[in-house]
Amino acid sequence: MLLYTVPAVLSVLVVVLVELLWLRTGVFRTARYWLAMLIVLGFQVPVDGWLTKLSDPIVLYEEAEMTGVRFPWDIPVEDFAFGFGMVTLTMLVWLRLGEREDRRARTPSLQETP
Fold first, then answer.
1. What is the pTM of this model?
2. What does the alpha-carbon distance between residue 74 and residue 50 come to, in Å, rounded to a whole number?
3. By CB count within 10 A, which of 29, 45, 60, 92 is most buried?
4. Is 88 contained in some domain?
């Protein structure tokens, strides 16, 4: 039933929809977001590749629950979907909370008004 693949794909879809329909931070249109994702991949590939290498795996997967596609090296493609979802959602929440703080800083409190 692909119990690893389906949630991986859903995590990507949910995070993209959260951004496009609710948070609307515009992060997907920024070069620094995509640069950050490249940096994440730069670390994810060697670490995930080492953890999932078929020759001596540290992390084991139930192959029947996945697509079986592993690239590069022996990394299940589902790991990249989950990674995208986790990192992107974290960035979106961080950006949204930062916007809130900025609004609070610009709004005078009741004590400050004459």
1. 0.84
2. 9
3. 92
4. yes
